[in-house]
Amino acid sequence: MARLLVTGGAGFIGSNFVHHVIENTDDHVTVLDKLTYAGNRASLAGLPEDRLTFVQGDIADAALVDELFAGVDSVVHYAAESHNDNSLHDPRPFLDTNIIGTYTLLEAARKHDRRLHHISTDEVYGDLELDDPAKFTESTPYNPSSPYSSTKAGSDLLVRAWVRSFGVRATISNCSNNYGPYQHVEKFIPRQITNVLRGIRPKLYGKGENVRDWIHADDHSSAVLTILDRGSIGETYLIGADGEKDNKTVVELILQLMGEPADAYDHVTDRAGHDLRYAIDSTRLRTELGWEPRFRDFEAGLAATIDWYRSNEDWWAPAKDGVEAFYASKGQ
Ligand code: NAD
Ligand code: TDX
After folding, report:
1. pLDDT at 3 (0 to 100)
2. Which of 32, 131, 210, 326 is 20 to 30 A away from residue 166, measured at CA?
3. Which of 5, 68, 82 to mutate for ligand 1's pocket (most ligand atoms within 8 Å of CB)?
4. What does pTM read for this prediction?
5. Is 109 helix (H, G, I), strand (E, B) or coil?
6. So what's the pLDDT on residue 313?
7. The pLDDT value given to residue 10
8. 298-311 and 247-257 helices, crossing angle to 10°
9. Is 190 close to ligand 1, i.e. is its CB under 6 Å away?
10. pLDDT score, position 150
């Protein structure tokens, strides 16, 4: 049995990871989460109390982080400000959490010699042209576009420097867009599903040609456990499941699966600096560490996600009106 510290474990991907760990290992999990607007204690409801300790706090609180690192074997770092649109409106919290927060964890990992896995994003690589056959690989140069992705890129570089300069035992993974249960309604897929459930027309930025490479959150979790177990210290692994789709196709599929006409959506103001296309080449993770995704049918995974939002209105309803008011103020 290992003792894991999971930062951001009450967020979307972090909570999916905690569920995955409890179901698939004997490990004990301590979650450190600030419970910002994006964190939800209810995402961890029902998990066995003897396997999970929840601590509300900030990853930039050095004294708290020091105390928690002393009591665990490994740390998986999900906590972040994660939404591009928010970073265009108010970048400051992105610097505080993604940069200073990650720095604080690295200093604790160095002091206590703890294994750290840092969760990052494919957005650090910038974007690809729509007609470019290339995909991102571990050697693609960093070229982030938004305040969000630039702070994630900065946090990755801090991790690399702490490995090289101080011998911290860390790995990094950069994953593509996740979908699944417990994702905040500010994000693309949950926003459109909950719009349809509320009788609001889905909102597509610009022409909807932008491409995202979708992976189920549970596949992201199994990849992270694989890297934590067998990854080489100091290395970066790209995580993706060959799920490229343009946004228009995804909205039309949501409408179709929910029994609405496929054209019942609105085009709204585009995102400033909107990345065109992300695509992941995950050959390294598959060949060197033997990982494979389990969710290969996007339509089936999306249908299950729609069912989850239909059945869990209590979980998402409190955030919905505020999110829509924010978007409306920006013509989105
Ligand atoms: P999220 O916004 O749903 O969750 C973030 C969590 O971190 C929340 O529970 C929040 O309360 C917590 N948090 C924020 N600031 C904190 C702080 N200072 N101290 C402690 N906790 C804090 O985000 P997500 O979509 O689950 O993303 C999780 C991680 O995965 C992020 O690092 C993100 O960059 C990365 N990632 C996300 C995606 C995606 O598709 N969502 C893809 C690739 C990588
Ligand atoms: O209402 C919308 N309409 C729309 O067309 C919203 C909210 C988004 N979009 C578009 C913008 C993107 O092209 O959908 C696509 C996905 O948008 P988001 O869900 O905001 O995700 P994205 O910006 O691609 O970033 C996500 O994946 C990488 C996560 O939020 C990041 O945390 C992760 O690093």
Report:
1. 98
2. 32
3. 82
4. 0.98
5. helix
6. 98
7. 99
8. 60
9. no
10. 98
CB 29 within 8 A of CB 52: yes
pLDDT at 217 (0 to 100): 98
C-alpha closest to that of 323 among 196, 165, 187, 209: 187
Residues 76-113: b if buried by 16+ CB within 10 A, e if exposed: bbbbbbbbbbbbeeebebbbebbbbbbbbbbbbbbeee
| Residues of the chain scoring pLDDT < 70 | none
> Which CATH fold topology does 3-178+216-239 show?
Rossmann fold (3.40.50)
Determine whether the shortest distance from the Cβ of 271 to ligand 2 is under 6 A: yes
What residue's CA is closest to ligand 2, atom 9?
A: 188
SS3 state of residue 292: coil
Residue 216 burial (CB < 10 Å; 0-12/13-18/19+)?
buried
Distance 224 CA to ligand 1 centre (A): 15
**CB-side neighbour CA atoms (13 Å) of 24:** 14
122 assigned to active site: yes
* Distance (Å, whole) CA 324 – CA 195: 9
Which residue's CA lies nearest to atom 42 of ligand 1? Answer: 177
- The answer to whether residue 123 is catalytic is yes
pLDDT score recorded for residue 264: 98
